[in-house]
Amino acid sequence: MRLHHLKRYSSTALIAVLLLLITGCSLVSPPVVTFNKFAPVSIDTAGMDIDLMLNVKNPNSHDLTITGYSYTLTILDLPFGSGGERRTIIFPANEETIVRIPIRVEHGQLLSVIKRLPDPDKIPYTLTASLQFQTPFGEKSVPLNRKGLFPLPERYRPKTILKGLFELLTP
User: Fold this and answer.
1) Residues 6+ apart with CB under 8 A from 33
2) How far apart, in whole angstroms, are the C-alpha atoms of residue 53 and residue 155?
3) How does DSSP classify residue 84?
4) Is 27 helix (H, G, I), strand (E, B) or coil?
5) Does residue 157 carry a pLDDT above 80?
6) Which residues are paired to 138 by β-bridges?
7) pLDDT tens for residues 87-132?
8) Under DSSP, is residue 41 helix (H, G, I), strand (E, B) or coil?
9) Which residues contact 64 (CB under 8 A, 6 or more apart)?
10) How far apart are the first and last CA of the chain?
11) Neighbours of 58 (CB within 10 A)
12) Which of 38, 67, 78, 115 is the most buried (most CB within 10 A)?
């Protein structure tokens, strides 16, 4: 009789462990990523360096570790930047972290956007990304698709830049 109960408890425990392993990956909630801002860093004769700042909220009761990411950014449905990086970033449990993604934009890409004469207060963007996270169950890839609007900072608006050039050229 004891052997029968032991086998029954062993099978129940085995099924419980298998169910935990199968559903375990769903116990890790994906991070919530929102747009923070575009921060122009520098401009030169070839183009502009921009930092894309994202807010990443970890809704889990445990830290999440990102091991890498890849992304594609479009502005006004025009390709604006793509890339990726393998680096480790730790997102503390139940906290929001600002993540900086450096983007290099050629002047031709900027001119393509300016030619469309967008409203500088409401420029549409689409960010498509894949974030790789280390979980207790191995690495997990989380897709991210965000659409939204961002305002162009006043100092980088064509009107302001042209005014500055005019003032430089005027004696």
Assistant:
1) 54, 55, 56, 57, 129, 131, 144, 146
2) 18
3) E
4) helix
5) no
6) 135
7) 898 999 999 999 888 888 888 888 888 788 788 888 898 989 888 8
8) strand
9) 28, 31, 58, 90, 91, 133, 134, 135
10) 104
11) 22
12) 38
Residue 36: partners with Cβ closer than 8 Å, 6 or more residues away: 53, 54, 55, 98
**What order do you get walking across the sheet with 47-57 strand by strand?**
32-43, 47-57, 96-106
Q: Which residue has the tokens 């116990």?
A: 27
Q: Tens digits of per-residue pLDDT, 23-57? A: 444 567 878 888 788 788 888 888 888 898 888 89
- Strand, helix or coil for residue 151: coil
Place of tokens 């890339």: 83
- For residue 153, pLDDT over 90 is answered with no
Q: What's the Cα-to-Cα distance from 12 to each of 18, 20, 25, 111, 123, rounded to whole Å? A: 10, 12, 21, 65, 57
Instruction: Judge if pTM exceeds 0.70.
Output: no
